[in-house]
């Protein structure tokens, strides 16, 4: 049933009809792997990007740290205008909270960037990495990330000024090969509480065992088909 590159280790039925795999996630961990050595292992080419230019690791770490916190990521989101038209709004909400961004050495000139957040905009993580690597190669100064996020040196939003758009971000997104959605976390206690409430409603005859027809009240989020970041757009 599954392709050879996917293995299923366990399967559990989510009995609560309110459960939704995207909207009920509490945290997601994305990683981006890249290599800096002069030659690249061809067996890693599918899951790792080879960076050909010199990388200032200190500048890279500083650029990545600027993403942490509640920020407007409009300059790092793809297809904002198209999504806004589809949803019938002037502009989708591009504010997201990034809990941490960490640069980790894997040895031999290999590195991974770990991004922890609740949800990401389309191509958001790849655009973040693309900009950070441009800073690390000396193409932009360390304040470039803050300007794209429209925050000052203390990380506070710049009042009276709109966040830049994607067209004002000159960097290309990092190649897709290095990106991976490593894990998705859920609130087990909240799920069990929802399940108990549902079972009680069924026992009292308030709802049928089929639930409410599978409809989920969420944030209008969609899973990106090609394995990239989720389209997690919210109407203003």
Task: Provide a concise account of the structure shown.
The chain has one domain (25-193): Pseudouridine synthase I, catalytic domain, C-terminal subdomain (Alpha-Beta Plaits), CATH 3.30.70.660. It is built from five helices and eight strands, in the order E-E-H-E-H-E-E-H-H-E-H-E-E.
CATH topology: Alpha-Beta Plaits
The end-to-end span amounts to: 40 Å
In CATH's first tier, which class applies?
Alpha Beta
Give start-end ranges of low-pLDDT stretches: 211-228, 230-236
Strand coverage percent: 15-25%
**Number of E-state strands:** 8
Structural class: alpha+beta
Largest sheet: 6 strands, mixed
Can you write the helix and strand succession as a string? EEHEHEEHHEHEE
**How much helix, percentage-wise, in residues?**
10-25%
Average of the residue pLDDT scores? 83
Let me know the CATH homologous superfamily.
Pseudouridine synthase I, catalytic domain, C-terminal subdomain
Instruction: Give the domain tally.
Output: 1
Specify the overall morphology.
Answer: globular
How much is the radius of gyration in Å? 20 Å
Write the CATH architecture name.
2-Layer Sandwich
What is the overall number of helices? 5
Secondary structure topology:
Elements: E1 25-35, E2 49-50, H1 57-65, E3 69-72, H2 80-87, E4 95-107, E5 110-117, H3 124-136, H4 144-149, E6 179-186, H5 188-203, E7 221-222, E8 231-232
Task: Describe the overall structure.
The chain is an alpha+beta fold and 236 residues long. Helices cover 22% and strands 21% of the residues. It is built from five helices and eight strands; from the N terminus they run E-E-H-E-H-E-E-H-H-E-H-E-E. A hairpin with a 2-residue loop joins strand 4 and strand 5. Helix 1 runs antiparallel to helix 3.
